[in-house]
Amino acid sequence: MNKKSSLNESLTLAFEILKRIPTSRYITIKELQSQLTEVGIKRDVRTIQRIMETLSEQFALDRNDKSKPYGYKIIKHHPMLSVPTMSPHESLLLSLAHQYLARLLPKNVSASMDSFFQEAKHNLNDTPNNQKEKDWLKKIRVVSETQPLLPPEMNLNVLNVLSQGLYENRLVTVKFKNRHGEIKKTSVMPLGMAQQGNRLYLVCRFDGYSNERTLAVHRVLEATLSTFHFERPREFDLAQYDADGRFGFGEGEHSYLTFHIKKSEGYFLYETPISEDQRIFDLGDSLKVSASVIDSLYLTKWLNSFGKNVWDIELSSQ
């Protein structure tokens, strides 16, 4: 390696370290090493220590050496170091992302963003000028349309392995319990992950099969990441998989639905149609509704939830 490339590499590493040093708390060498590793930068502790010593001398970083391991943080508004600080709006956005999307982020992405999440939390909780942004978190909420249930117990190590396999297009061996309580073990090709309420589902292909299946993550007991990569099927589209009603436990069968519903119960269908081609006929005390749908278990449960207020249900294949 020539001197120029070595210098460029050292500068790049220094900048990567510098942008991960927070202003709100102390960060250790081990934490920095872990965050760098998650973004593909693998360096030993001694290398990072040497760079931190140089950065501390040049920029007078605040070092907490009262106890080991030592921690470092950037002194706010230091005249020799102008690091862009996170705005209140950016802090709010990151806090919301962490609150609602944390389980959908790959482990390496989440780990590499940890300093930013911590900084956002500090900015909202410990900075008086950001009171409006802090209060906003208490003013909004995503609510459930159905009876709220406690989330199922889930093995976080399993989730991390599945996320990594999905992120890196690598095969994963899973041991899981199906809905009948039977224990199965197989190799899967992870293709997508979806959150439905408080549950996570992995869309995958089982070894030896060409069709997609939905696997409840909380039913996976063990997961082992393979060294083998796979080529992601070009024909698979997660958005289309969802549109075909596969998360509603259907087989993507397009059907035409007609039914009668009590007017007071079905008025919301004027505001939130079942489909683009929905038609409603006002019959006085009742409505006759027709629409193109995907036949699924969720559709059946939805219709049954109206009880005697829905009648003359007809479902025909298109």
> Could you tell me how far the N terminus lies from the C terminus, measured between alpha carbons in angstroms?
65 Å
Low-confidence stretches: none
What is the average per-residue confidence, as pLDDT, rounded to a whole number? 87
Strands across the major sheet, in which order? 7-6-5-4-8
Count of β-strands: 12
Strand content: 25-35%
**Helix-strand pattern:** HEHHEEHHHHHEEEEEHEHEEHE
What is the CA-atom radius of gyration, in angstroms? 26 Å
CATH topology tier name of the largest domain: SH3 type barrels
Structure write-up:
With 318 residues, the protein is α+β, with helices and mostly antiparallel strands. It folds into four domains: 3-73, Arc Repressor Mutant, subunit A, CATH 1.10.10; 88-139, no CATH class; 156-243, Roll (SH3 type barrels), CATH 2.30.30; 246-317, Alpha-Beta Plaits (2-Layer Sandwich). Helices cover 36% and strands 28% of the residues. The protein has helices spanning 3-18, 29-38, 45-59, 88-101, 107-112, 114-125, 131-139, 156-168, 238-243, 263-266, 297-304; strands at residues 27-28, 62-64, 71-73, 170-177, 183-196, 199-206, 213-216, 220-229, 250-262, 279-282, 286-296, 310-317. The strands form three sheets. Strands 7-6-5-4-8 form a five-stranded antiparallel beta sheet, with helices on one face. A hairpin with a 2-residue loop joins strand 5 (183-196) and strand 6 (199-206). Helix 1 (3-18) packs across helix 3 (45-59), helix 4 (88-101) packs across helix 6 (114-125) and helix 4 (88-101) packs parallel to helix 7. The longest helix is centred in the N-terminal third of the chain and has 16 residues, at 3-18.
